[in-house]
């Protein structure tokens, strides 16, 4: 039977002893860095949404004749919301891989990930997570659509072709708002996601 090599004099493990878990630990460090980058990207998407919303509303409301600019708000909100939610599910996927695949390859496991999983609520509090996201991404779109109802549908000085075009954009904006709502509710765990394919991260 082959004897294991002795440890170094300073108590550090030898290369033979490290071979079993140095790789998984390095992979864990890289994945934790990826999680941090994804969380940072979520914060950037949130900040960008607030900045873009303030700019669009400020510009459209302060200048006569620019009301139609508000029609782009549902689309920008949906795009930014989609990126934020994608980063969220990407973080969950990395965490799941760490727990299911990587932890068992490290002697003693990776207790930090297991501890986080045990303490994470299955349904985040409505006021603490879901409502702020709904206000940030959905309420701004709803407000923009409501503000432009009269401009799109009630003005009498608009020809039929432009009115149809504006109505089509308004309707698509409503659809984008509904999609943003679904994304936020999926992120908050209030609408189930049947598979990773639905997150766009397969």
Topology overview:
Blueprint: H1 15-18, H2 22-62, H3 73-102, H4 111-119, H5 126-147, H6 149-154, H7 160-187
Helix pairs in contact: 2-3, 2-5, 3-5, 3-7, 5-7
| Total DSSP E strands | 0
Largest sheet: none
Oligomer state equals single chain
Query: Shape from CA axes?
Result: elongated
Q: Overall pLDDT, averaged? A: 81
Transmembrane segments: 45-62, 126-154, 160-185
Keywords: Membrane, Transmembrane, Transmembrane helix
Region (Disordered): 1-22
Overview in brief:
The protein has 202 residues and is mostly helical. The protein has one domain.
Structural description of this entry:
- By secondary structure, the protein is an all-alpha fold.
- The protein has one domain.
- Helix content is 69%, strand content 0%.
- It is built from seven helices and no strands.
- Helix 2 packs antiparallel against helix 3 and helix 3 packs antiparallel against helix 5.
- The radius of gyration is 25 Å and the shape is elongated.
- The N terminus is likely disordered.
Comma- or semicolon-separated keywords:
202 residues, mainly alpha, 69% helix, disordered N terminus, transmembrane helix, transmembrane
């Amino acid at each position: 039977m082959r004897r294991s090599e002795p440890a170094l004099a300073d108590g550090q493990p030898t290369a033979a002893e490290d071979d079993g878990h140095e790789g998984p630990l390095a992979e864990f460090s890289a994945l934790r860095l990826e999680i941090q980058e994804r969380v940072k990207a979520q914060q950037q998407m949130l900040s960008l949404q607030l900045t873009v919303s303030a700019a669009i509303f400020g510009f459209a409301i302060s200048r006569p004749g620019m009301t139609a600019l508000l029609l782009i708000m549902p689309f920008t909100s949906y795009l930014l919301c989609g990126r934020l939610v994608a980063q969220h599910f990407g973080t969950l996927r990395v965490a799941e891989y760490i727990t299911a695949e990587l932890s068992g390859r490290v002697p003693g496991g990776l207790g930090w990930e297991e501890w986080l999983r045990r303490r994470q609520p299955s349904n985040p509090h409505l006021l603490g997570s879901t409502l702020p996201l709904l206000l940030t991404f959905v309420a701004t779109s709803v407000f923009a659509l409501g503000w432009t109802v009269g401009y799109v549908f009630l003005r009498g000085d608009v020809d039929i072709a432009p009115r149809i075009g504006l109505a089509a954009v308004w309707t698509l904006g409503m659809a984008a708002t509904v999609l943003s709502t679904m994304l936020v509710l999926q992120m908050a765990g209030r609408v189930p996601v049947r598979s990773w394919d639905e997150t766009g991260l397969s």
